[in-house]
């Protein structure tokens, strides 16, 4: 009886999608069911039989684990039957998934990364599912072009984090709200209503092994954070890197910070590592709805019109003051007005420019 009377995810969703989007409410309840299935599997670790073992290469040219495949299946099976969807798109599938013949069609589009950070599942570190819901003008069978909408058109976005506890964090366009899974009762309970990202932070997250491939504005920013009290920032910074975007974004929603996977020159064919439709856009909506910012450094992420399903983008997101600073550094760099910088990397750049 301990949790009786608390707001469940189902109640929250039904109350907040009544009217025009009630069918989307039903879809979200199916997404939550899929998330519970994945949570149970991930929580078993190697005992599930899906963690570890041989990997295959997926459509992104990346290693695909058995747990990725089974998580993808879980979402497809839980969500394909209800009649709300015109199609689904997944990180694990090259093309959109058509709704099977035997099921009715709806007008919503579900895009998702079934298990982000799955390389971490082998080492028992938090992983997550990221999802987003878009709308097509009419019910029917979705084509790839239907999915290519800027993130500002998302009707809902969320992620589940499979950590010491499983949480589902959701926005329907009115704030960002966190629900914790009560494993015994089987319900997600509203535990973190109206999450707010602090505007200021002294914590940043970036894969620093890529430093030599970053653009100068990011090198400048990180070098200033590392210099701490002794330099222009006048304060010491802390660094974190989990290599699991869901876990980094969750930390930022809980206590502030900035997450960066910037543009780099490591592979000139890839303008960033993270995927726009099912990683960057949903996280950008959640962060903005919590009062933070999400940018490429040169453009608001939610304004990018995708031209491919698996398009990659640079991602800088989190506490407002830091994302604004990074945007300013990009602008100063692009316009040649950045101040003389003492880092050897910047001296190198000024040599190139002179
Ligand atoms: P996987 O799902 O292949 O593990 O990738 C997760 C991810 O795209 C994202 O969650 C992390 O931020 C990023 O990779 C970490 O990658 P690095 O290996 O570059 O640190």
Counting copies of identical and different chains, the oligomeric state is single chain
Terminal Cα separation, in Å?
72 Å
The total of helices stands at 9
Large-scale geometry: globular
Major sheet summary line? 7 strands, mixed
Radius of gyration: 21 Å
Enumerate the strands of the largest sheet in spatial order, edge to edge or round the barrel. 3-4-5-6-7-8-9
SSE order, as H and E?
HHEEHEEEHEEEEEHEHEEHEEEHH
Which hetero compounds are present in the coordinates? 1,6-di-O-phosphono-alpha-D-fructofuranose
User: What's the overall average pLDDT, rounded?
Assistant: 93
Taken as a percent bin, the fraction of beta residues is 15-25%
Structural class: alpha+beta
User: What is the CATH architecture assignment of the largest domain?
Assistant: 2-Layer Sandwich
């Amino acid at each position: 009886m301990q949790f009786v009377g608390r707001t469940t995810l189902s109640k929250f969703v039904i109350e907040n999608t009544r009217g025009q989007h009630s069918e989307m409410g039903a879809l979200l309840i199916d997404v939550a069911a899929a998330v519970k299935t994945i949570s149970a599997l991930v929580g078993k670790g190697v005992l599930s039989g899906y963690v570890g073992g041989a990997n295959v290469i997926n459509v992104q040219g990346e290693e695909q684990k058995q747990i990725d495949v089974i998580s993808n299946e879980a979402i497809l099976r839980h969500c394909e039957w209800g009649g709300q969807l015109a199609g689904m798109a997944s990180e694990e599938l090259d093309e959109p998934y058509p709704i099977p013949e035997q099921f009715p069609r709806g007008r919503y589009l579900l895009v998702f990364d079934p298990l982000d950070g799955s390389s971490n599942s082998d080492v028992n570190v938090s992983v997550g599912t990221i999802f987003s819901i878009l709308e097509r003008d009419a019910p029917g069978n979705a084509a790839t072009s239907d999915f290519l909408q800027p993130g500002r058109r998302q009707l809902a976005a969320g992620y589940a984090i499979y950590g010491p506890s499983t949480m589902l964090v959701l926005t329907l366009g009115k704030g960002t709200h966190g629900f914790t899974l009560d494993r015994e009762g089987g319900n997600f309970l509203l535990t973190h209503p109206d999450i707010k990202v602090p505007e200021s932070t002294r914590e940043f997250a970036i894969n620093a092994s890529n430093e030599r491939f970053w653009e100068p504005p990011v090198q400048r920013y990180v070098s200033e954070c590392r210099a701490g009290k002794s330099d222009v920032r006048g304060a010491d910074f802390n660094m974190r890197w989990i290599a699991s975007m869901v876990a980094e974004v969750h930390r930022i929603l809980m206590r502030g910070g900035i997450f960066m996977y910037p543009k780099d020159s490591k592979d000139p064919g890839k303008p960033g590592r993270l995927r726009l439709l099912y990683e960057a856009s949903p996280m950008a909506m959640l962060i903005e709805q919590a009062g933070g910012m999400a940018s490429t450094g040169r453009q608001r992420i939610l304004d990018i019109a995708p031209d491919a399903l698996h398009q990659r983008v640079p991602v800088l997101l989190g506490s407002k003051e830091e994302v604004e600073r990074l945007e300013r550094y990009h602008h100063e760099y692009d316009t040649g007005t950045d101040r003389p910088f003492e880092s050897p990397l910047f001296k190198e750049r000024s040599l190139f420019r002179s």
